Amino acid sequence: MNQTVYAAALVGVAALCTLLTRALPFVLLGGKKELSPRMQAVSRTLPAAVMALLVIYCLRGTGFAAPAQWLPAFAGVAATAALHVWKRSELLSIGGGTLCYMLLLRLL
Amino acid sequence: MKEFRFALRRTVPVLCGYVFLGLAFGLLLQQAGFGPVWALGISTLVYAGSMQFVLVDLLKAGVGLLSCALMTLSVNSRHIFYGVSFVEKFRQFGAARPYLIFSLTDETYSLLCSLKIPAGLREKPVYLWIALLDQLWWVSGSVLGAALGQIIPFDLTGIDFAMTALFVTIFTEQWLTAKDHFPALFGLGCGAAALLLLGPDRFLIPALAAAAAGLWLRQSRTTREEAAP
Q1: d(CA B22, CA B216)
Q2: Across chain B, which distance is largest between two alpha carbons, in Å?
Q3: Is B115 near chain A, with CB under 8 Å?
Q4: Which among A25, A42, A91 is the nearest to B83, CB-wise?
Q5: Residue ranges per structural domain of chain A
Q6: Which of A80, B18, B75, B117 could form a disulfide with B165 if both were Cys (CB 3.0 to 4.6 A apart)?
Q7: What is the ipTM score, two decimals?
């Protein structure tokens, strides 16, 4: 197969399959009928669990052999959360946490 | 216009994360022999961060279409859990609904979940602008990366931590707002247990499934208790 056609086909397949995973809940649950009260409650509570999982997902590759491997990420997370509890300003929390991470990455 | 400004402010953290992750993607793509036009096409049509990094490897390896399909479905299967929270909300959005579904990445999902729209702003344009701007940041970063190649003027290693910090901030905000901390703690528990049992490459989907199932079961129990005399 021609190289460009092959690459385009591969991109097309990846695009379609990505869309499929995103559209699936809407196809399954998005008909005219309202969600059941139980499903509505799950849809309200799930984001908190997902956010916890996404944080773990971001940190999943962290090594623990030396402090330089895990300290920047964990200090960055702690700084972000602490700043947020203190000021509750999203940009300050994210900016401060990221800065803390980048500094420790260079210092350790 | 007020809606646009509000949305722009909300997407700044994603801008930091997406532009730099996009740059990294564009750079890898360029090294694999695909230029800015490919970066534009892939980031516009596929629009899935981690999957696009995998896609570069698949393109290089020359895998078959079926393997690519299976790989995409498994890497992106976490998205199946995201839509559940927006099935009711997106109903009201008419013609904007297909795009909002298509563009529901981890980051856009997180911003939309945590959205508190001030009084006086219309909901639909806020949702749509957030989704569009997020994709614009991602596309810009990847095209830039593919066009510039290696010439990036400063050492920005670690700036993509902004993405982790975004999730931590939303988690913290939800924690401070919520009366019921069970879903957050249960999510942490499922994630930690799955990570220890299954390892970093395979833990996410089982953990998501366990969290969704657990919340469902708990809900049925509380509903029954409330219904009991």
Answers
A1: 36
A2: 70
A3: no
A4: A25
A5: 1-33, 64-108
A6: A80
A7: 0.87
